[in-house]
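Researcher: We're teaching a course module on how sequence relates to structure. For the next exercise, students receive a sequence and then see the predicted structure as tokens, so they can try to spot secondary structure elements on their own. Here is the exercise chain.
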Amino acid sequence: MVHQRVRLGILTIAHEARRVEFGYLRNQLELTAGNLSQHLAVLETAGLVAVEKGYAGRRGRTWITLTAAGNTALAEEIGRLKQLIARVDTTEAGPSGGDPQR
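Model: And here is the predicted structure for the students to work with:
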């Protein structure tokens, strides 16, 4: 679930910001409000983010916070990505013409 690019972006920004406003996430990830809402619903159902609705002055706001489970899932996905990147780095540094079927 986390490996999907948009969801990985949501978790990464939420980790960085601790508490992030919906509009900021939408702008940073260049998504429509509806698309972001769908991704957040999936992550919230999985327990990876908490969604809090409230007001800033008279304007409605939605804030997203990474949960402990979300933090763990993000760390695990980053670990998997690092392993894949290491394979590319090793392949580029090694001799060419290796067996692509390995």
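Model: If you want an answer key for the exercise: Residues 5-93 form a domain with the Arc Repressor Mutant, subunit A fold (CATH 1.10.10.10). The radius of gyration is 18 Å.
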